[in-house]
Amino acid sequence: MKDIVSPICPLANQCSFYQQSKSYMPAVSKPLRDEYCLADNSRCACRAILTQLGLEWVPLHMMPYQHEWAEQILTDIANSHVPLEAAAPAGVL
Ligand code: SF4
């Protein structure tokens, strides 16, 4: 019988990385899922954007370790001085 491991990250149900991680390049995604989603989500780049901006701002193929990319998105939005609703990607919010 296969072990079923529940994600420790409460954002797993809405996270595209987690949702795709079982079918997307398992050799790459499994160690990341084990390290971030099932152990310590506090260092996750996807989580930073999800919690601060929302699901629609997380790039589809962002990996949990891409902190510089996440920081750039957060900085760009913070420096835009545009209300979040107006700065949202087309077709969202
Ligand atoms: S990738 Fe990050 S936000 Fe998504 S489920 Fe894993 S720890 Fe949570």
Summarize the structure.
The chain has 93 residues and is an all-alpha fold. The protein has one domain (12-87).
Q: What's the topology here?
A:
Blueprint: H1 16-21, H2 26-37, H3 45-52, H4 67-80, H5 84-87
Helix pairs in contact: 3-4
The structure holds iron/sulfur cluster (SF4).
Task: Sum up the structure in keywords.
5 helices; mainly alpha; 93 residues
Account of the 3D structure:
The chain is an all-alpha fold. The chain has one domain (12-87). 47% of the residues lie in helices and 0% in strands. The protein is elongated and about 40 Å long. The mean pLDDT is 85. Iron/sulfur cluster binds next to helix 1, helix 2 and helix 3.
The overall number of domains is 1
Low-confidence stretches: none
Radius of gyration, rounded? 14 Å
Mean pLDDT: 85
Order of helices and strands: HHHHH
* Ligand list: iron/sulfur cluster
Which percent range fits the helix content? 40-55%
Number of helices: 5
Strand content is under 5%
Largest sheet: none
Could you tell me the number of beta strands? Answer: 0
- Principal-axes shape call: elongated
In terms of structural class, how would the helical and strand content be classed?
A: mainly alpha
Distance between the termini: 43 Å
